[in-house]
Specification:
eight-stranded mixed sheet, globular, 3 domains, alpha+beta, C8orf32 fold, Jelly Rolls
């Protein structure tokens, strides 16, 4: 996917082709030929593509914002030709797209071939209300191709000024630059995330000096134009890693935060602080949150019927929550900037995540309960100090009963009362009310407790081994599995077969799959044959706590962020065949800790009850901190390797 455009620094072997702050001239046949002949990137020889040059530029002229992007990309692999050869341009109402041009250069039998595309060759695709994406498919992109493109966007407001410029993408980049020319009456704050030392330049000429990250900012009077330039050179590709809350929290970028406008000594706050933003933009907005705080008489009859005879506030809330969750359908539609009509949502029994949760809040408040919408981001975390409404992409509901706070999401069909999806546990969030306020949603606040009970017995006379596995999943695991299966019991059975040993046959399965307000409970009846022998090799983990090491990579750059905390207990009781005992003494208790803080722990205890002829195994895996720094990664890998190894060890039973 083609995402960015910019400036240049290129090395072939040890030769510098272009000066540091110069765009390569593709009209120069010598320069173009050397680019086409390039077979790999010195910055990353394994890269499938290389961003040779990219630049973004934002200009504010009067009340108009103009934004230009351009770039040059070299393709090294056919596998990503389609991806790299597609330009995606977000296109919202009121924004004009101009001067789109692109060229694809190929070297065919020593001759340079060029294919061009103009703005008329566009494909528009609707994504959500008010938002479209323009796709440009470039012809003839393949291994060896060189792509050059540019386009401009123009808006009659300052929406484009708040564009985030990402220095990192899927492929390494030799030179990435963002320039912003901003009038002095616009008060803004650049929010910069760069992993190299950022050098400040006092003049544009100094931008050409060596350095992987350079910034030039020109201070001005109120009526003049401030010139700002950020340059990042030799940028590695961004490598997404497992257990990362969102890559947007780590990608190198610069973002201009628009705070206020000043004129004649007066200041008009725009995104000055969160309380002000949320009060004006959401709470008082009659097309968004305001109706949820109104009387909404059209809800009276339904709410009265739902809570009739129910005494406690929590049970009343549960009845209303169940109604909204079970009687409505969610669709991808309205967002935090859309016009929302609660009456239409109620009567149509359908709506977006925002609409359904606003309906839930309205119905809870109609019943006299204390409820509020909560806005959050499931991707880049909201910054408590720099309000950015554009980062908001999700809503949940908050119910207050006394000192207790209960979070709800009525837009998720398989979610139990009192829980929200794990991806919502992403830090700072805003409570929408007349008084403002915020909350912090973290994985540490929710513990997912799962219990696995196993009863195993051998019948020598029939040469059958029977097992019963009863699993009671934690609330979040229950939601994850129910959403994954969508009520399909065949998927449940397939999952069960993958969880247990291959040589066991499932005789029956029972579950409460469709009882969403209860923890998911699955019971398996298993059977397998065994030969009457004097020695039995027995693996006590019929169902694994952890099936494989979740961190196979040898190194890691970013912290490990667990989506939620798990506590899994495994309890097995094995009625041994008559006359069998463990070959070696098995009474043991072992405990492994990731560190002194006990961020991860694993306990494994085995007991042989000789008088009863039983073997008992108790294991417990517990996660106690969702954030594990990258420097602990080697210990983390080792911890899981030991855990998996223990689960694969066998106990030897011998016949007396």
């Amino acid at each position: 996917m083609l995402k960015k455009c910019g400036l240049l620094l290129i090395f072939f072997g040890m030769t510098t082709l272009f000066c540091l702050a110069q765009k390569p001239d593709l009209n120069d046949s010598t320069v173009l030929m050397k680019l086409l002949e390039m077979e790999s990137a010195k910055l990353d020889p394994e890269a499938k593509a290389l961003v040779v040059y990219e630049k973004g530029k934002a200009d504010v002229i009067g009340f108009t914002t103009r934004y230009k992007r351009e770039g040059i990309i070299k393709v090294f692999n056919n596998d990503i030709a389609r991806d790299v050869g597609t330009i995606f341009i977000p296109h919202q109402g009121g924004i004009l797209l101009k001067n789109l041009r692109a060229q694809v250069y190929n070297l065919e039998n020593g001759t340079i071939q060029v294919q061009s595309i103009e703005q008329n060759d566009l494909i528009k695709e609707k994504i959500t209300d008010g938002m479209r994406v323009i796709k440009v498919y470039l012809p003839g992109v393949k291994k060896g191709s060189l792509i050059a493109y540019q386009y401009e966007r123009e808006a009659g407001n300052m929406s484009l000024l708040q564009t985030t410029w990402e220095f990192q993408g899927d492929y390494p980049c030799l030179h990435s630059e963002f320039e912003a020319n901003i009038p002095g009456h616009i008060i803004y704050e650049p929010i910069v995330r760069i992993n190299s030392k950022l050098l400040s330049s006092t003049s544009k000429e100094e931008l050409e000096k060596p350095g992987e990250a350079v910034v030039y900012r020109e201070g001005v009077a109120e009526l003049a134009i401030s010139n700002n330039i950020w340059i990042r050179r030799n940028v590695p590709a961004f490598e997404r890693e497992p257990y990362m809350a969102s890559s947007e929290n780590y990608i190198e970028r610069v973002k201009l935060h628009l705070k206020a406008l000043s004129s004649g000594g007066n200041t008009i706050n725009i995104n000055h602080n969160w309380d002000e933003v949320c009060l004006k933009r959401y709470y008082k907005n009659e097309f968004f949150a305001k109706p949820a705080f109104s009387r909404n008489n059209f809800l009276n009859e339904t709410v009265k019927r739902l809570v009739a005879g129910i005494e406690t506030p929590e049970k009343q809330a549960m009845a209303i929550y169940n109604f909204v969750r079970d009687s409505t359908e969610r669709y991808a539609g309205a967002d935090a900037n859309s016009y929302i009509k609660l009456k239409d949502v109620f009567h149509s029994r359908s709506g977006s995540n925002y609409e359904l949760n606003l309906l839930l809040v309205a119905m809870l408040r109609n019943a006299g309960l204390d409820a509020y919408p909560v806005l959050l981001s499931t991707t880049e975390r909201l910054n408590p100090y720099f309000p950015d409404p554009d980062n908001i992409n999700y809503m949940v509901s908050l119910l207050k009963i006394g000192k207790e706070e209960i979070y709800l999401d009525a837009s998720k069909k398989f979610l139990s009362f009192g829980y929200i999806p794990p991806y919502c546990l992403n830090g700072y969030a805003r409570i929408i009310s007349s008084k403002g306020g915020h909350t912090t949603l973290l994985p540490d606040q929710f513990k997912d407790n799962t219990t696995i009970m196993v009863a195993l017995e051998d019948h020598v006379e029939t040469q059958l081994e029977e097992a019963k596995i009863d699993v009671k999943y934690g609330w979040i695991s229950s939601y994850n599995l129910r959403e994954k299966w969508g009520g399909d019991t065949s998927l449940l059975r397939e999952y069960a077969q993958n969880q247990i040993s291959d040589d066991f046959e499932i005789k029956s399965i029972s579950s409460n799959l469709n009882e969403y307000n209860k923890q998911l409970r699955i019971t398996y009846q298993l059977e397998r044959s065994f030969k009457d022998a004097s020695i039995i090799y027995f693996n006590p983990f019929l169902e694994k706590i952890i099936t494989e090491n979740p961190f196979p990579a040898s190194h890691r750059k970013y912290p490990v962020e667990l989506p939620y905390l798990r506590d899994i207990q495994y309890i097995l009781t094995y009625q041994l065949p008559e006359g069998f005992v463990p070959e070696e003494q098995v009474e043991q208790e072992k405990t492994w800790l990731l560190n002194k803080q006990k961020d991860l722990s694993f306990v494994n205890k085995i007991d042989f009850l000789e008088e009863q002829g039983k073997l008992q195994v108790y294991s417990r895996y517990s996660e106690n901190n969702h954030y594990l720094p990258a420097q602990d990664y080697d210990f983390l890998r080792s911890f899981y390797e030991r855990l998996v190894e223990v689960q694969n060890q066998k106990i030897v039973l011998k016949k007396l």
